[in-house]
Design brief:
about 40% helix, single chain, alpha+beta
Length: about 400
């Protein structure tokens, strides 16, 4: 039986949930029908746009831009501060309801999930009819709308749900890729970050179709393993399954919610320096090295994305963790303001476990490793005696 996967995404979730809550409390105006945003201060105009109404979008207001810009575009704009307690409650209500259709639900953020519709598709005339029933019942029951994307795998379902909004059902089956997905700008491909898009455009790859028809070896030459992933996505290839139960994280990591959103590479590099130092120390304390390094981004609109890389040899060093995390960030970051960054390691092995090395590794890397081993031991002794922040690189200080 061919797999049928839904991607269900709440339309402008934070603003919609706020609007519904205010209407339930007697508000006379629906925020979704006027120029309105979530985020930013009505008086000071500080902060960023976390969510926007369709009328606000008509003024050119974009998610992630400074609120001050939004108010200049639309002086009568209404702003409401985020209410994360409300969002968490609304999200739980929605997910619990969706599980009445099937328990094969993978929640990927507060306002979106994948549903494996395969086993229940025979209960409906068609997947489209099932998706319409879910979409319409959500609107009737909760008062807000969702988009539902339908396909045979997760990446195509995700792409489909991002087509025309709001309150729509879209299909993107493999046979529809060339017509519906390939003409789209390359920046709209799932996981195509700002840096990756820049590189691809230099190769004269401007649409998803251009990438799909390109030589994958050329793409990998410029974007390494992430290039292979993007090429596969452009061709509708995705082997990832819906994980209905959250898998236990087996690894060591560290993340930080930033005091203010960052939007430059330089700021991100400083954060990764701090995070990699902490993860390195935890790995060494646990007597572990990692073959897998993952990097997480949470944007100002609270959407989260992650990316990972498998190493040829396990590591516990701060420099390798930092370098890899920055590399992953450059590949994935879409240029929007970031409020959280994280590094996680997995596929751990004991530090004492032997690692096969080539003659080149032994002859060339040994002096380097011995030098840094002695330096790290000295730094560890200083930090143990005077505290974790006693010694930091000047370039790694977060201002």
């Amino acid at each position: 039986m061919t797999s049928i996967i839904f991607h269900i995404d709440v339309n402008s979730a934070f603003l919609s949930w706020t609007a519904v809550e205010e209407l339930n409390k007697g508000a006379e105006v629906d925020l979704r029908t006027i120029p309105a945003i979530i985020g930013g201060d009505q008086k000071s105009h500080r902060g960023v746009v976390v969510a926007k109404s369709i009328p606000a979008k008509r003024y050119g207001i974009r998610t992630g831009e400074p609120a001050a810009n939004a108010f200049r575009k639309c002086p009568e704009l209404i702003s409401v501060p985020p209410n994360h307690v409300l969002y968490k409650r609304k999200s739980a209500e929605l997910m619990n309801y969706l599980r009445t259709f099937t328990d094969k639900i993978e929640q990927v953020s507060v306002d979106e999930c994948y549903m494996d519709f395969t086993d229940i598709q025979n209960q409906y005339i068609s997947p489209e009819e099932g998706a319409l029933r879910i979409k319409n019942s959500v609107k009737e029951r909760f008062g807000f709308t969702v988009n539902v994307g339908i396909s045979t795998n997760k990446v195509l379902a995700k792409m489909a749900s991002d087509f025309e909004k709001p309150d729509k059902v879209h299909t993107l089956y493999p046979e529809e890729i060339q017509k519906k997905m390939w003409p789209l700008p390359i920046g709209e491909l799932y996981m195509a970050g700002k840096s990756s898009v820049h590189t691809l455009k230099k190769l004269e790859i401007n649409t998803i179709g251009d990438l799909a028809m390109a030589d994958p070896e050329l793409i990998c030459l410029h974007l390494k393993s992430h290039g292979k992933t993007l090429w596969e996505f452009a061709n509708g290839i995705c082997e990832s399954k819906v994980q209905s139960e959250k898998q236990e994280a087996k690894g060591i990591g560290k993340s930080t919610t930033l005091e203010k959103d960052i939007d430059t590479m330089e700021e991100a590099e400083k954060v990764f320096a701090y995070l990699s130092q902490g993860v390195s120390e935890r790995l060494k304390k646990a007597g572990q090295k990692a073959y897998m390094i993952s990097m997480e981004i949470k944007y100002s609109d609270f959407k989260s994305v992650s990316h990972q890389k498998q190493l040829a040899k396990p590591t516990d060093t701060k420099d390798c963790l930092q370098k890899t995390a920055i590399e992953l960030f450059k590949e994935l970051w879409n240029g929007m303001p970031v409020r959280l960054l994280g590094i996680r390691t997995s596929k751990l092995v004991a530090t004492s476990e032997p690692v096969q090395m080539s003659i080149f590794d032994i002859e060339i890397q040994k002096p380097f490793d011995e030098k840094h081993k002695k330096l790290n031991e000295a730094l560890k002794e200083i930090r143990t005696k005077f505290g974790e922040d006693a010694v930091v690189k000047a370039g790694n200080m977060i201002s």
